[in-house]
Structure to design on (183 residues):
């Protein structure tokens, strides 16, 4: 496993951009130089955003699992006037992105011989998505709980993905909650 290595600067390109909610998008970045970034689920990267002739840096949790080599997926909420989200909302497929990483020590305790409970709201679900996907990739099939909170039904992130996972993995329990549902 990676990783207590020093952070490295990477050149990447936007490979895929998907709408997750009206104000949240997923950005899949293909690493170009270097082409691989070993990381652990739960770690984050720092995006170097060009602004006014300089650079601002913003941290984002990695939403993709480490076994998807050569890519980093980010889950980003648009913030009106925000330097990074404005940059990402203008990003097109094939556009360059500079980032550094991996950073952070937010990781699952090993060995995973317990029942993980993941609790998140909004884009805070990103590192847990990485963890869940990677645990199943490693064939670790302990009972897991994903508790996801949001205000409205239309802002539930990765809902179809988590529901599909729960339908094929009886050990995965997905419980979305809305604080301001329509009814």
């Amino acid at each position: 496993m990676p990783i207590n290595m020093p952070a490295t600067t990477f050149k990447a390109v936007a490979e895929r951009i998907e709408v997750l909610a009206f104000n949240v998008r997923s950005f899949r970045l293909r690493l170009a130089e270097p082409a691989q970034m070993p990381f652990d689920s739960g770690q984050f990267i720092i995006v170097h955003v060009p602004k006014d002739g300089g650079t601002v840096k913003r941290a984002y949790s990695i939403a993709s699992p480490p076994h998807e080599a050569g890519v980093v997926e980010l889950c980003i909420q648009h913030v009106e006037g925000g330097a990074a989200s404005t940059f990402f909302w203008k990003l097109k497929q094939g556009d360059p992105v500079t980032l550094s990483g991996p950073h952070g020590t937010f990781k699952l305790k090993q060995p995973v011989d317990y029942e993980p409970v993941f609790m998140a709201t909004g884009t805070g679900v990103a590192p847990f998505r990485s963890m869940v996907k990677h645990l199943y990739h490693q064939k670790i099939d302990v009972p897991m709980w994903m508790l996801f909170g949001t205000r409205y039904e239309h802002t539930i992130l990765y809902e179809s993905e988590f529901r599909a996972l729960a339908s094929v993995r009886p050990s995965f329990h997905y419980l979305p909650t809305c604080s301001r549902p329509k009814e």
In short: Strands lie at 8-21, 24-33, 44-51, 54-61, 71-77, 96-103, 117-121, 144-150, 172-178. The longest helix spans residues 126-137. The chain has a mean pLDDT of 94.
